[in-house]
Amino acid sequence: MDCSKCKLKLKPEELLKCNACSITLHYTCAGLDMAGFKKILPMNKPKWKCANCKPSKLGSPIVFNKVCEESEEMSSIINIDTESLISLINRRFDSLKDSIDTFKTEVNARLTQLSDTVSSFDQRISSAEARIESLSETTMKLASENISLSNAVDLLKMELSDREQEFLCNDVEISGITETKEENVGHIVQVLANKLGLSINECDIVSATRVGVFRPGGLVENVSGKGSNVAAEPRPRPIAVRFARRSVKDGIINAARVRRGATTADCDLPGPSRRFYVNERLTRTNRWLFNKAREEGKRHGWRFIWTKEGKVLVRKEQGKASHRIRSEMDLASVFGSDKVGTNVPRPSTTNY
């Protein structure tokens, strides 16, 4: 298709066709520039009229001049099909509304999904809180049971220690006696009893033996019944004695207290004259408690720490109430210490 004015080929994107005379023109041949051509809406191009077919305001034919070109540009802008424009606007609004509706639908779907996720998280958090609360209650219950069991174990330990001490009710412990290789421990006990003013027969002694860790360096060679100067251990092993009757045991304990400070002088025993001690025989637990009670009593100024019938007793001063020490807690309670020494050793059956 050729331009009716310049006779050159027309491209579709440059074409203008007059609705009145059907001539075809380049938009430049019609007196429009690119901006003016683009201002003609697509819906108005089929109704476009060339300058010759448009009546002028003066009623005379319009020629292609600068004034006509400006008039053509203005007429192409003003000459608008209102219904087509409204229809286009409506379609655009309908399209926009559809887009908005689609967006709202997607947003609502996402919000619903987010709400479901939040609800799921809320349920999980609630479940976790319930579990934590349950675990907390279980922990508190277990802690309470643990305390109860610990108290029960402590009570059982004390009862076991008391039972073990009852097993030693006829026993005494004699310390400070020189140890020799071929000594007769039963005879030594009888000699010491005589020294304390008591007469004891062999039938009164159930057993008598050295107890504790054996130290070879503590032995003294017995030469012709006399002790020789072989490096003697300062503290030889004590002698554990079990009597047949409780009365014999109580008698020797009382005699030792009356004759406090007695020595082995004139007893015809090996080694140099030494002071000896006779005490109730205590279990390992009570012996530990007694030693600790003496340490704490000395540190806190308690005057009286003693044992009676296997019980460890303390009194701060004359006229004050006495306290029995059965456990480490008693030590802390009586002497006001947060922690006393090391843990109390476990009760164990005492063997000769």
What does this entry look like structurally?
This protein has 352 residues and is an alpha+beta fold. The protein has 4 domains: 69 residues, no CATH class; 70 residues; 112 residues, 2-Layer Sandwich (Alpha-Beta Plaits), CATH 3.30.70.330; 52 residues, no CATH class. The protein contains 7 helices and 13 strands. The strands form 5 sheets. A 4-stranded antiparallel sheet has the order 5-9-3-10, with helices on one face. Strand 11 and strand 12 form a beta hairpin. The chain is rod-shaped.
Top-tier CATH class of the largest domain: Alpha Beta
How would you name the CATH homologous superfamily of the largest domain? RRM (RNA recognition motif) domain
Helical residues, percent: 40-55%
CA distance, first residue to last residue: 135 Å
* Envelope shape: rod-shaped
If you compute it from the alpha carbons, what radius of gyration comes out, rounded to the nearest whole angstrom? Answer: 61 Å
> Largest sheet, order of strands side by side?
5-9-3-10
Query: Which series of helices and strands comes N to C?
Result: EEHHHEEHEEEEEHEHEEEH
**How many domains is the backbone divided into?**
4
The CATH topology name of the largest domain reads Alpha-Beta Plaits
**Poorly predicted segments:** 57-68, 223-232
**Strand residues, percent:** 5-15%
Counting H and I runs of at least 4 residues, what is the number of helices?
Answer: 7
What summary fits the major beta sheet?
A: 4 strands, antiparallel
* Count of strand segments: 13
Under the CATH scheme, the architecture of the largest domain is 2-Layer Sandwich
Mean pLDDT over the residues: 83
- Provide the structure class: alpha+beta
